[in-house]
Amino acid sequence: MSATETEAYRPSDDEPFMSERQLEYFRKKLLDWKDDILRASKDTLGQLQEDSLHLPDAADRASSESDKALELRTRDRQRKLISKIDAALRRIDTGEYGYCEDTGEPISLGRLEARPIATLSLEAQERHERQEKVHRDD
User: Fold this and answer.
1) Which of 83, 29, 108 is closest to 21 using CA atoms?
2) What percent of the chain is modeled with pLDDT above 90?
C-alpha cells in the first residue's frame, strides 16, 4: 500500500475485522502518536534546560517553577501513555489487538479510531467504570 493510500484509508465494517490492512492502519496511527509525544517531550526537556532560574524577582521565579511542575506532570502522564501505546503495538503483533480483554468480542472500529489503545469494548468499559464507582463510594 502506498503512502497516499495509507493516508486516505479508513477502516470500515465492510471488511474483515482486524484484517492486515486494518492492523497496519492502527500500527501507523499508534506509532505516529508515540512519535508526536516523544517529539514534544524532547522539546520540553530542551526548554527546561534553557530556562534560567535567574529571573529578576521571586514572583517570576515562582511562576516559572509552577509552570515547570505542571509540564513535568503532563510529561509523566504522557510517559504512561507511551507504555499503553507500546502494549497496543504488542497486541497487534500477537493478534490480540481490537478484541476486548474481558469478553473477547471485537472492540468497535469507532472506539479504536477514537482511542487506539482501548483494551475494552465500550460496554465492558462502562461496566468497569460503574464497578469502580461503586467500590469508591463504599
Assistant:
1) 29
2) 59
